Amino acid sequence: MKLSAGLEEDLAHLLDEVLPGLWESTDRARVLPMPGDGSDRRFYRIHRGARRMVAVLSPRKEGSKVDENDSYFLIGTHLASRGVPVPRFYWGDPLNGCFLLEDVGDCHFQSLAVRGPSDLEHLYGRALRLLVYLHRHAPEGFDAGFCFDTAVYDPRFVYTRELEYFRTFFLNSLLNLEVPEEELRRDFEDLAEVSGTDERQWVIHRDFQSRNLMVHGGRLRLLDFQGMRYGPPAYDLASLVTDPYVCLPVGIQERLVWEYWKQARRFLGGTRERFWDRYRAVRLSRNVQALAAYAFLGKTKGKNRFLRFVPRAWKQLFAWVKGPCRGRYPRFERRLEQVERQGIPRRVELFRDT
To answer: Are residue 77 and residue 181 in the same domain, yes or no?
Structure first.
């Protein structure tokens, strides 16, 4: 992998100036690039003798007061202090976007789940327990100042960053439709009001799915937490059970939802019915967000590998709108029915898993 001049300098600084102070070794460091997902960040595994670290290089956005790098470091440090199993920061320089972290290996939770083990539900039970722990303990000491990209999953955020994101990049850009904002505005506003919250009681990861969980040393480790914010815990639950990277059977999804409620109801409070109403809405919002992200990454950024997950995510979205959400968002439902009749375009189908 050829690096830009800036990245070369940052990596050289880590190896020549920072690493010797962390590792007392005469061995020469070996550096291997690591694959990333949708992020523009660069990851490198550093070997020195028998020890390993991961270097993260993430150029700072110009003019930002609180940058994604700040959130990465502040939230990661906070979660570690609350006992959430995240990679340990050995050294961090958010201003320049350079970090050295604990290496948590190469085994994604996804790689175990897609093998279809007989104990798939038991495997997901481990992820569910981690999620319950996160929701119970992460809010204590969490601060809005940690967040670079708004601090609350409120109705305005839902409308602009998830629902309109879907209309713009999935319906109009990927599918080449011409859906005006006014067509779906009323339904999207209604859905945003039910999904979003102005409360600052709970915090959510906002991308709690199988690609952001690692299995290392017999434990699950949580990645990509920089987008954490105040929000409804049911959103993370929806992210986990509807994850198109795995596509869990519907029966397992349903049992996991109610197992989460069983474990979390004591600290969440409220009723089972209220929990279900919120889950029903945020699951729909999460589903459209995932489709929008695949469309944006696949078409706009040219990362075609994400397009192969579109058919899976679409199938879940359509079933949810025609099932638990039937009749609640009639204009949106009619538009999705039109897409279903026409079918997902061939250029998306080319990436369907076989």
So the answer is: no
